[in-house]
Amino acid sequence: MKTVIISLLLLFFPLSSGDAPECYKCHERNSQTCQQELETCQEGEHCVTILEDFIYDGNCYASILKDCIRDIPCNTTIYGREDHVYFKYFIECCDNTGCNNEFHESPEDDEPNEFLCPSCFVPDSEEECEANHLTRCIGNEDKCLSFAGTVLEPDDEVATYSFSGCITGFACEKPIHQFIGLFVLEEKVYECRDPLTLPNQNMKYKK
């Protein structure tokens, strides 16, 4: 499973050149820690730690990955949420041997911003749901995402649902369909749109 995850990450973040440090490597789903080993990276790779938080139906899951990865958006946090679904994907990079040894807490930015996204959630549905309320976006969430499909949760439970809500725009420009703990098994809808702003919150939302 780890080989598949690393291959997907390298597919999303293409190769570049640079120095080759030694980095700690490990991966664990549904856990905040993992058993790490120091290995030599290839030229141009960073020492990377990725922390993923996922909340669905009141259940909270944390997953972690440490590895050597090229051209990844370093020190970036990706948020996505609706009332029933929340995820946070934190990427931390460094370039010195063994520098990703520590298990750092991912930063929290829950300050509301000026954006609003039409939102909805429908369990057991692969059809795009129809928005029935507005969600106030937080932090760097600056796009609206509509998703429908089937996922494998970090505890290996399979769930199918459709939701719309806020998301960090980077995930629209370069969608990360496979996270490190949450896996998308079948994707029917993955579409990003511009959000509404507070002065225009009463406008009809157009797809």
Any overview of this molecule?
- This protein has about 210 residues and is mainly beta.
- The chain has one domain.
- The protein is about 5% helix and about 50% strand.
- The protein is built from two helices and twelve strands, in the order H-E-E-E-E-E-E-E-E-E-E-H-E-E.
- It has helices at about 1-10, 170-175, and strands at about 20-30, 35-40, 45-55, 60-70, 75-80, 85-95, 110-125, 135-140, 140-150, 160-170, 185-195, 195.
- Strands 1, 2, 3, 4, 5, 6, 7, 8, 9, 10, 11 and 12 form a twelve-stranded antiparallel β-sheet that branches.
- Strand 1 and strand 2 form a beta hairpin.
- The longest helix has 11 residues, at about 1-10.
- The N and C termini lie far apart (about 35 Å).
- Mean pLDDT is about 85; it is low at about 1-20 and about 205.
- InterPro entries: CNF-like_PLA2_Inhibitor, LY6_UPA_recep-like, Snake_toxin-like_sf.
- This is UPAR/Ly6 domain-containing protein.
- It holds the Pfam family UPAR_LY6.
- Keywords: Secreted, Signal.
- It comes from Engystomops pustulosus (Tungara frog).
